[in-house]
Design a protein that fits this description.
Layout (H helix, E strand, L loop, with lengths): L11 E5 L2 E14 L4 E9 L6 H8 L3 E2 L3 E2 L1 E2 L5 H10 L8 E9 L3 E5 L17 H11 L6 E9 L2 E6 L8 E6 L20
Parallel strand pairs: 7-11
Antiparallel strand pairs: 1-2, 2-3, 3-11, 4-5, 6-11, 7-8, 7-9, 9-10
Length: 197
């Protein structure tokens, strides 16, 4: 198993007008076999912001195997969702940013950090009521480009996707180190919505 220590740096410092935050990997990076991506939990240390936007910028400073640049994780199949729950039991206790955002345009667009959209896949893992929350927000913010970042929310009913105000802080993030493009094989998107966990 490859460790975070193989990355370009053991921590990455970001400073902006809102504060200083340091991101550090926690535990090992795990290889997900269906995508060829490594996944790893990172944790903010220090003064906020610990926002989605800050996390998204920060993890791009990390490399795995000197060639895989980090990004907030894309979860496009049941296989990846359940792999994360199995390999990272902390997800059942700690909310974590992932690489999805809802953006209020003419319609609501759901955009991953790799710039693909949720429309391109059938897998969903929404908390009950979350999509209604997004619809209401985007109805009152139509065509503004405003976004709601998505995070994994551990609840008594399982670990599901939810949204938060972009200014809200979450201390943890799920980071993906995707396989280099030339190594990625075309695969069919996985089906159906997550249930249970």
């Amino acid at each position: 198993m490859l460790f975070a220590g193989l990355m370009l740096a053991s921590s990455f410092l970001i400073q902006d007008a809102t504060g200083i935050a340091v991101a550090r990997p926690t535990g090992k990076a795990h290889l997900e076999p269906t995508t060829g991506s490594y996944f790893q939990i990172f944790e903010f240390h220090g003064r906020p912001p610990h926002t989605w936007e800050h996390a998204s910028r920060m993890v791009r400073g990390y490399l795995h195997d000197n060639e895989r640049e980090g990004r907030l994780a894309t979860i496009k199949s049941n296989a990846v969702h359940y792999f994360l729950l199995l390999e990272f039991p902390e997800m059942r206790e700690k909310p974590m940013w992932i690489g999805l955002r809802a953006q209020c345009n003419e319609y609501t667009d759901y955009i991953w950090t790799d710039e693909t959209t949720l429309e391109d896949q059938t897998f969903r893992a929404w908390n009950a009521g979350t999509q209604q929350k997004i619809r209401e927000f985007c109805r009152s913010n139509k065509d503004t480009g405003r976004t709601l970042p998505v995070y994994y929310d551990p609840t008594e009913f399982g670990v599901r996707w939810d949204v938060r105000d972009p200014r809200i802080n979450i201390k943890y993030m799920m980071v993906e180190f995707p396989a280099p493009e030339e190594a990625v094989e075309e695969t069919e998107p996985a089906t159906e919505t997550a249930t249970g966990q």
